[in-house]
Design brief:
Strand order of the largest sheet: 1-2-4-3
Oligomer: single chain
Order of helices and strands: HHHHHHHHHHHHHHHHEHHEEE
Number of strands: 4
Number of helices: 18
Number of domains: 2
Strand content: 5-15%
Shape: globular
Mean pLDDT: 93
Helix content: 55-70%
Structural class: alpha+beta
Length: 515
């Protein structure tokens, strides 16, 4: 039978689309602590975002009224989640399912640009989802990287489609969408724009080399319109609330100049120019070894570049190098990074499927005399592997537990005995104590952040309010040795906790009440 070649338009059938969306929803439902299978998402990062989002729907303004460090669009997403449910993370779970579906759909569309995969090969996509979302970089779910890397997969597909189907340059509509994607990345976490900077550099090089300046301009102004379509409402919101200065201080200035969290003390990291190469490479190597699933997928992504076909390889390599190098270059600009920073690179993992799909096509031909048996065997093996990945994910210890399993809800029973109580999480990040108690913070600096040492205003305000007896209750960790004249320790709780290290630990909290 004559092969028709890869499906260069990347179109999906209804059955393919159904499989991709369902597998994405199943994956997120099993691995994310935001899903209905879990009592609550205990991750402090996600709870900080959710608290600010809850504040927005009650008229509080990010940065001005509630201080946090991520981009405003992330808080608006969590505000939409709070509109669905203020008492749970169901809204966040829906957002995660949507983004995982986009990742699945555009990963498979990318594969179909370069290969003619046999129908049963789509079983590889759930496996990709399982590996990607069960890595410990995912932690409990709901972080900025997880919500953004599917956007990179979409932009990467646009670039690859232009290479395979066109002349290397995206369409005008895709330029507009890329502008929207860039704005979304910028207003969620601006260090994510490295990918789009590389994408724009690739387009610039290609257009200038061909002297297609008129076409380049048509792409540029559409990209700019897309960027402004999302940026304008953000700026108008802060302008209308008199909070542009707070936006600038908290999201830009403090993050650029005050935020520190060192990871490597190597002498190479202090040498100009060399540090810009050493730190990203150090981060990739360290995270790939520490998180094997991530390392395997990243290696498969690199290998896939040799399976894109000679006809497209030169442009594909140019696009990949521009986007990948600037992604890691801007994400790791200094000797400071946290484990989940590198998770944004999962946007490239769609490429990892290409060599495996081509391998399955070869296997199908080798066993053409008994194709059904081989297809069934491979599909079954992939499904079993996928199920094992989900069953062994680190968050399973929380599945089907009651809310009282968590200290947040045990403390809420005590806190709610005081009507309209004012609470503070002191020297510990917000792990959901506000949400569990159904309360909002009554002060700007509502929890600990990794910036206190260089931004003393946080502790200064909290200590001043504590001294004045402003709060009814204060939640701290066991590591905080607190001795306040006007507060007394009334409860101590210890929870089983498995965080990104994958180790089972006991995490303790203390609850103080105003005398």
């Amino acid at each position: 039978m004559r092969s028709q070649g890869p499906c260069v338009d990347g179109k999906l059938t209804k059955s393919e689309l159904a499989i991709l969306v369902i597998s994405a929803a199943v994956t997120i439902t099993v691995v994310s602590a935001s899903s209905p299978l879990y009592p609550f998402n205990p991750w402090d990062d996600a709870n900080c975002f959710f608290t600010v989002g809850r504040g927005i729907i009650h008229g509080l303004v990010p940065y001005r009224d509630l201080y946090e460090q991520k981009g405003p669009l992330l808080y608006f997403i969590y505000a939409l989640a709070a509109l669905i449910s203020e008492k749970s993370f169901i809204g966040a779970w829906i957002a995660e399912c949507v983004m995982a579906s986009l990742f699945a759909v555009f990963s498979w569309k990318t594969v179909k640009l370069f290969a003619e995969p046999p129908k049963f090969a789509i079983a590889l996509v759930p496996l990709l989802l399982g590996l990607t979302y069960s890595t410990r970089l995912f932690n409990f779910g709901g972080n900025a990287e997880e919500l953004c890397f599917p956007l990179l997969t979409i932009a990467l597909y646009f670039g690859l489609k232009a290479i395979v189907k066109g002349d290397g340059l995206p369409s005008r509509t895709e330029a507009l969408i890329c502008g929207l994607i860039t704005a979304a990345l910028f207003w969620i976490k601006y260090t994510f724009i490295g990918f789009m900077a590389g994408f724009c550099l690739y387009i610039l090089i290609l257009a200038v080399k061909r002297k297609e300046f008129k076409r380049l301009w048509s792409l540029v102004w559409r990209f700019a319109i897309g960027f402004l379509m999302l940026s304008a409402p953000v700026l108008v919101y802060f302008l209308a609330n008199g909070a542009l200065a707070s936006l600038w201080e908290a999201y830009f200035y403090n993050n650029i100049f005050l935020y520190h969290s060192g990871e490597t003390d190597s002498a190479l990291a202090s040498i100009p120019v060399i540090r810009n190469i050493y730190i990203p490479l150090y981060a990739i190597c360290k995270m790939s070894v520490k998180y094997p699933k991530f390392g395997i997928l990243l290696l498969a992504t690199f290998v896939s570049l040799f399976f894109t076909g000679k006809k497209y390889r030169k442009k594909t390599l140019l696009l990949f190098l521009a986007t990948f190098v600037l992604s890691i270059g801007i994400t790791f600009t200094r000797n400071t990074f946290i484990y989940y920073y590198i998770y944004i690179l999962a946007g490239f993992f769609s490429l990892a499927l290409i060599p495996f799909c081509k391998g399955l096509a070869v296997i199908k031909k080798l066993f053409k005399q008994n194709p059904m048996f081989m297809q069934g065997l491979i599909t079954g093996a992939l499904v079993v592997f996928y199920a094992l990945i989900l069953l062994l994910n680190k968050n399973n210890y929380l599945i089907f537990q009651k809310k009282e399993f968590l200290a947040q809800f045990r403390y809420a029973e005590t806190i709610n005995q005081t009507p309209n109580a004012r609470i503070l999480t002191y020297d510990v990040m917000d792990s959901g104590f506000y949400t569990a108690a159904g309360l909002l913070p009554q002060n700007r600096f509502f929890c600990f952040l990794n910036i206190e040492s260089s931004y003393p205003a946080i502790l200064e305000e909290q200590n001043r309010l504590i001294e004045a007896g402003y709060f009814d209750y204060i939640v701290t960790s066991f590591f905080c040795e607190c001795d306040w004249d006007n507060y007394v320790l009334i409860r101590e709780e210890t929870d089983t906790y498995i965080d990104y290290t994958g180790e089972k630990t006991l995490y303790g909290y203390r609850l103080y009440k105003r005398i």
